[in-house]
Amino acid sequence: MGLIRKAVATAALQVGFPGPEVDLIELAVDEASSNAVLYASEESPPTIEVEIHIGPESFTVILEDGNPNYSFENRGIELDAQLESDARGGLGIYIMKRFMDEVRYECCPERGSRIIMSKRLPSLQASP
Question: What is the CATH number of the domain that holds 70?
C-alpha cells in the first residue's frame, strides 16, 4: 500500500496540490486500499489496480480490487458516537468522502469492486 500512496502523492504534487491537501488525498487513498485488503475474500484476486486520471478540472484516483459487492452507500456513521467508542475502524468511507470532492463505488461481477475518488484541481493562477 505504500507504493500506492507514493504514486498518488507524487501525481498530486505534480499537478499543484499543496502539501497539506496531498496528505488528505493520500489518506483517502490509504483508507480505500486498506478496505480492499480488509474485505478481501478467498475468491478475490490478491491485487489492487490503481489508475490516476488528470483531467482539465479534476484529479481522479480509481482503485479496483476484485472484491465482492460491498454496501458502500449504506455505511453511514454517527461520527461523535464512533469517536467516543472503543470500536476500531468504521471511519474509512467517512474519511474518503470528507477529503475528496466526489467518491463513487461500483461493483461488477467480472471485475469486482471499484472506488472512484475525485478532487477538483487547485487553481494554478495567482489571485488578481
Answer: 3.30.565.10
**How many structural domains is the chain composed of?**
1
Here the cell at position 81 is: 458516537
- CB distance 63 to 90 below 8 Å: no
User: What is the reported pTM?
Assistant: 0.78
Domain with 42 in it: 2-120
In a domain, 7, yes or no: yes
Give the N- to C-terminal CA distance of the chain in Å, as an integer.
41
d(CA 19, CA 11): 12
Sheet holding 102-108, edge to edge: 49-54, 58-64, 112-120, 102-108
Structural domain contains residue 6: yes
Tell me 63's DSSP state.
E
For the chain, 128 residues long, give each residue's pLDDT as a single digit of tens: 789 999 999 999 999 999 999 999 999 999 888 877 777 777 766 678 899 999 999 999 999 887 655 555 545 555 555 456 555 556 778 889 899 999 998 887 777 788 999 999 986 434 44
